[in-house]
């Protein structure tokens, strides 16, 4: 083979910025295969046009992308690679936003305490009949689920038509963030003695909620958007715990005023958590 247009692995390493050890690893994994391997010495040679590919591999690995995924991205064409990089950048920016909010929240708790930034009140929640649709999602799928769920639920409610008894709310049966998914229920409360929904889709139901006592705090504007809203949940949970009460059901997010845009300054949401007297060892409330 004519080796005049080939670079030995040492020179290729200098040109690409990848160590000889890394080049051997990428050869073994099939991500960057030499153009020629000397059958006697086993020495690797690369084409000059492989330098740019090697530089791209180096950059992708600097983004902590696994070797196997690097190979897939490079094999998918430039448009697919560009789309994947943009998606990764958006995810990185979101993680940074979450980290900033978490640090800010922790600093506030250290200097002021959660109760100083979120005033917790108590109100009585009446027994309610609700139209509900649920799904198991994490935070990345939450907005789309709620938008679709409420669109379909309002269509069903309009056929009644149902008479609403309060604002729409969401019930979270567990932690819903970027790392955890849980059952989330979109809820519409309506009058039990008026028109009733009919011909419900399979994933929609009518449910009865008992009267309860709720610990509440309100959040507005940017504070009502994820991840800053998590501070409100923490404040209510702290209040229930510190006062010796027991959690008595899924936490609610009540839409007191909602524009449709998560961080709009006019948004006003209420975090409302049912609580009760703690049960004694025999399972009875104090």
UniProtKB/TrEMBL annotation:
Residues 6-76 form the HTH merR-type domain. Keywords: DNA-binding. PROSITE patterns: HTH_MERR_1 (PS00552), HTH_MERR_2 (PS50937). InterPro entries: DNA-bd_dom_put_sf (IPR009061), MerR-type_HTH_dom (IPR000551), MerR_fam (IPR047057), Reg_factor_effector_dom_sf (IPR011256). The keyword DNA-binding applies. Pfam families: MerR_1. This is MerR family transcriptional regulator. It comes from Kitasatospora purpeofusca.
């Amino acid at each position: 083979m004519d080796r005049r247009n080939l670079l030995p692995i040492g020179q290729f390493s200098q040109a690409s910025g990848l160590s000889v050890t890394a080049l051997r690893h990428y050869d073994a994994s099939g991500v960057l295969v030499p153009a020629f391997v000397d059958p006697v010495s086993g020495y690797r040679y690369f084409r000059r046009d492989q330098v740019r590919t090697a530089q791209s591999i180096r950059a992708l690995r600097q983004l902590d992308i696994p070797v196997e995924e690097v190979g897939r991205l490079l094999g998918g064409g430039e448009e697919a690679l560009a789309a994947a990089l943009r998606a990764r950048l958006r995810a990185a920016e979101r993680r940074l936003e979450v980290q900033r909010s978490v640090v800010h929240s922790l600093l506030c708790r250290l200097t002021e305490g959660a109760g100083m930034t979120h005033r917790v009140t108590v109100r009585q929640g009446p027994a309610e009949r609700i139209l509900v649709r649920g799904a198991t999602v994490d935070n990345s799928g939450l907005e789309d689920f709620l938008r679709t769920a409420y669109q379909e639920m309002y269509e069903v409610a309009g056929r009644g038509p149902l008479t609403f008894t309060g604002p729409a709310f969401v019930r979270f049966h567990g932690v819903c963030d970027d790392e955890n998914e849980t059952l989330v229920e979109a809820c519409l409360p309506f009058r039990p003695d008026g028109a009733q929904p009919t011909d419900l889709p399979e994933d929609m139901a009518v449910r009865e909620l008992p009267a309860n006592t709720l610990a509440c705090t309100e959040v507005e504007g940017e504070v009502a958007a994820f991840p800053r809203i998590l501070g409100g949940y923490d404040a209510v949970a702290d209040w229930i715990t510190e006062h010796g009460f027991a959690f008595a059901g899924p936490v609610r997010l009540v839409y007191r005023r909602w524009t449709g845009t998560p961080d709009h300054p006019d948004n006003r949401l209420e975090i409302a958590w049912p609580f009760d007297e703690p049960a004694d060892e025999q399972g009875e409330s104090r």
